[in-house]
Structure formats: C-alpha cells, structure tokens
Amino acid sequence: MTISEPVQAALTSEADRWIVVGSSTNPDPGLAVREALAPISERANPRLTIIFCSPAYNLAEVSRLVQASVGSGEVIGCSTAGELLRDHPMTGGLLIWALGGEGFAVTTGVGLGDPTTGLRDAAQSAAQCLRRLERKEHTILFLLADGLCGDQMEVVRGAYDVTGAGVPLVGGCAGDDMALQATQQIHSGEILTHAVVAAAITSNAPMAVGIAHGWEPLSEAMLVTGSRGTTLATLDDRPALDVYLDTYGAPAEVRNDPAAFFDFAHTRPIGIARRNRTEIRYVYGADYEKRTLTIFAEVPQGAMAYLMHGNSDSVLHATAEVCALAEQALGGQPARGFMLLECVARKSLLSNAGLLDESLKLPTVAPETTVGGFYTYGEIARTEGSGGLHNQTVVALALA
Q1: How far apart are CA 176 and CA 82, in angstroms?
Q2: Which of 73, 140, 177, 313 has the least CB density, counted as fewest CB within 10 Å?
Q3: 111 with 124: CB under 8 angstroms?
Q4: Domain definitions of the chain by residue range
Q5: What is the pLDDT of residues 162-190, one digit of tens each?
Q6: Of 11, 358, 383, 371, which Cα lies nearest the Cα of 165?
Q7: Three-class DSSP labels, 5-72
C-alpha cells in the first residue's frame, strides 16, 4: 500500500477571490489527480488551474483528468524539477494551484518555438492572450516556458514586445527532474514541448512580485568584453573560463573534467548588474579548448558582471524573505495566496546541507495563507527596467 503525501487546502476568506492549492505523491495518476483536486473541488468554477507535475507521471493523462474536472476554466501547467508546498518541498509529485471568484478574470495563450529559433516568437504569441482580457484594476502576465529551448531571456523579450512596461511578467521555466532531456508544457489539455504558455490574470485587488537570491559578489565588477548568446567568451578581455577558475581557486579536476566542472559551478553563479538589482546567471558548462563558459541565459556584451558566492544560510534567508518582499508591495493589503518559483540549483544546495525541509517555513506568511509552486530551470520576474530572467533565485507572486 502506498502512502501519499497529505493534501494541503488553504482557502481565502473573501468570496469574490479565492486561491487553493492541492497536492499528492500517489504514483497512480488518477488517484493523484483526485487527491490534488479535492480541496479545489470544494469551490465552484476555477478561473485558472495550474498543473505542476513531475515527469514521472503521464502528463497527458493528468491534464485530461484535470481539464474534465474543472469545467470551462482555463488550464495550463508544466513538468517540474520538484514541487513547492507550504512547509513541505516535494519531489516526484503533483501540485495543483487554482484561483477563482468574480474578483479575478483570466485568459490564456500558447506559442511554439524550436531549439534553432528559440522562444521569442513563441512568447509573443502566448502573450497575445492579454489583448483578449477585460482588465480590472491590477493585471499580470504569468508565463511557463520550455526550460531547455535556447536562451530563456528571449521569453522575457518576446512577452515584453506585447505587454510593454505596464504589465509585470512573472513565471518559470519547466523542468524534467534534472534529466536535462526535455520539458513539457500544458495548455487546454494539449501537451507541448519547445513552447511558452501564458495566463493573463486581472484582479480587483493588488498582485505583486518579490525577488531574492542570497548571493553576494566575490569579485570586483568586470566588463563583459566578449559574449554571444549563452556563450561567455571574455571578461575584462581575459578568457572567461580562466577568470572563473582562478577567481574561485578551482581544484585540478575542475580544470580538466566537464563533470567535475558542472558540480563545481552549480553553486558559483555569475551576477549581471542591473540598475536596481543583480540578476543571477547559472553557469553549467565550459569549453576547455576555447576557454569559454556556457551560461543558462544571455550575459550581454558590455554588461558589468560579478562572480558570486553564497552558502546555505544566505540562500535559506532569501527564501524566507521573498514572500515578505512581495507582500510589502501589496499596498498594505494582506496576501491571500502566493505562487513560489524557485531554482532547482537552490534546492540542491539546501538539500546537500540538510536544510531542504527548513526552506519553506516562511515565517512572515500567515498560517492560513495558501502557498504553492515549483522548482524551475529559470525564473521570470520583470516589474521594471531591463532584464527579468533569473537563475538560482526565488520569486514570489503575492495576490491580495
């Protein structure tokens, strides 16, 4: 007999806006969907249902069962590298996050890209759903993108082409439990890859985004003097790989073995200086002949960059504070629910330190407040300025 994870249900108290999260780790997809939907079924007609699902499940079957259960409401989702439940990170499970009530309205969209052309056009197509939305006072665009399809910064650029500066962007890049082979996206019962799905959400109450990462500069600022796409060639006119290895004092095996480099770089990211923050970029490969670094997203030529460092305590603190940062931006209204989007590299760091179960205690969040989300291959959060694609970061969307 399999014992599944306890189902979480946290309901908001205001009838015109509600947010509910349910979950399961039952390996049977039918039973998992039934368990995860149980608290949501207590509410009528979700406006939006989001599926965060381990690739261990058949996503087509999960999507079909969820779509049949929620009726005419919009359904999107993606495969994950783990799921985030209040006080309880999960691996290999199913989490369903839903909102409803007359205080919300939602439209969704989808766009298809490919590894050659990337996802900018796909994000533009998905973001067109914003044009069909009858807006209330507050609006955001929520995005889920293929986490293994080109430069993820192109997702932000494509969505921004449609939304402009006035609509915040938030979301995450789909995972595949660290297999790094293929991710899946869900839109209205259809299972896709190399895609971007979007939900334009409008509300009569505020929504706000918090961003935190816990990394600090180890190096002085350096000029990116050579880069193309996701390849970082030179920093201050020196080969980027040499700068990276020397600054971190990399041991001999890291200087010669790609597998050892991958493990080493996992907790040693690069930071890009923006006007009001530092955006983190995940380093996941090296070319020992060309002396270049491979980055998960663009490090633009001409930018100022840092080599960053941190530890489990600083990463844990960032997770604890991110919901407070988002709630502070709600203009004095309490959060009724949160969506959390956290990089899988942070999960690995905290897990290795034996702190994973501590990472979602969230001391500033009221016990009755709904919290749910997933571990990503990249986080999207753009509220102002340029940029908006993050790695090794935690993002919180707060809804009043």
Answers
A1: 9
A2: 313
A3: yes
A4: 18-212+314-399, 216-309
A5: 999 999 999 999 999 999 999 999 999 99
A6: 383
A7: CCCCCCCCCCCCCEEEEEEECCCCHHHHHHHHHHHHHCCCCCCEEEEEECCCCCHHHHHHHHHHHHCC
